Amino acid sequence: MLRTEDLPLDWRAATLAGRLLAPEGPLVVVCREGRLRDVTATAPTMSDLLRDWTGETPPGRDLGDLADFDFAAHPLLAPFDLQVIKAAGVTFAVSAVERVIEERARGDSARAEAIRGDLSARVGGDIRAVQPGSEAAARLKAALISEGLWSQYLEVAIGPDAEIFTKAPILAAVGHGAQIGVRSDSTWNNPEPEVVLACDPAGRVLGATLGNDVNLRDFEGRSALLLSKAKDNNASCAIGAFIRLFDAGFTLDDVRAAQVDLVIEGRDNYRLEGHSSMDQISRDPLELVRQTLSEHQYPDGFALFLGTLFAPTQDRDEPGRGFTHKPGDRVRISSPRLGALVNEVTTSKAAAPWSFGVGELMRNLAARGLLSGRA
């Protein structure tokens, strides 16, 4: 259930858009100046709302003050519906390069610094400042190859082409408060706290929210060809609580400067904290949007996960085994201007099955008289 502390710190000044589950079906809602409004009669889907968004809240039914709304009776859904859910991976190049250096140095800080200095000398500058696809990145790639340090992850970290993949089917994401799933046969997995952009069919970036791009490190680590099994499973994508739409008080520059925090609390009293700073991202969010659209169209818009710096190393059970989820873990991803996304971990088999697809949504909206006369 959504609590006031899960909202953006300045939520009464924010423009928020989301989806609720009512007895009659999904509702599209907008919150402005702290008042929640049901705009489903004007915008039956979030795709409709964002496609036609001009900055003005559509007509709708007042639902009262957001702080007083009964989210127990009307649980939050993921704030996207017909949009394709895309994700960008390995977007923090400095993290990827540093991980390769640390693996080669095997915990020897002096050796790591020597490798870093040698690479910087070959590149002709600080490797932390290398821009993907640049001449300096090409020189760094050549240096890494000569040292036997190259990998497919570094190719997308500093090469010209970003990794862009489809995270989940349309309508398959879960929202704030729902259980989030990991494969029952995974033994090494972790959350990935990320900022998610809301884009219309033309590629306009209209706002942002938070997401959990659950990752199975054992599956993806075995082979990049297992990415789909590592990323796309029942309930393995959480988004929410609301999309914060851009306005005079919140812009893309706020996304570029966002700090994303993570807290995991287990039933075994285990606690892990992590952070991801968007100012460390290697490719600007608009460049990731451009690459998403370069050879594809999204007539209903798309959501785009921007990647994360977070990679947990804190041991949970045996020394040297690192972190992996256990059922019942409470995962809280938060950022001051975006609020919080909270989910409890279960397995993808035990999570509620995904049964409300596009056909069911269309039948539901049609039965409610919400599709007639729409272009």
Number of DSSP helical runs: 10
Structural class by sheet pairing and helices = alpha+beta
Percent of residues in beta strands: 25-35%
Cα gyration radius (Å): 21 Å
Assembly category: single chain
* Helix amount: 10-25%
- End-to-end Cα distance, whole Å, is 35 Å
Overall mean pLDDT = 92
Give the CA-based shape: globular
Number of extended strands: 18
Sheet of most strands: 11 strands, mixed
Order of helices and strands: EEEHEEEHHHHEEEEEEHHEHEEHEEEH
Instruction: Report the uncertain regions.
Output: none
Task: Characterize the structure shown.
The chain has 375 residues and is α+β, with helices and mostly antiparallel strands. It contains ten helices and 18 strands. Strands 1, 2, 3, 4, 5, 6, 7, 10, 11, 13 and 16 form an eleven-stranded mixed beta sheet that branches. It has a five-stranded mixed beta sheet with strand order 8-18-17-14-15, with no helix packed on it. A two-stranded antiparallel ribbon has the order 9-12. β17 and β18 form a beta hairpin. The two termini are 35 Å apart. The model has no long low-confidence stretch (mean pLDDT 92).
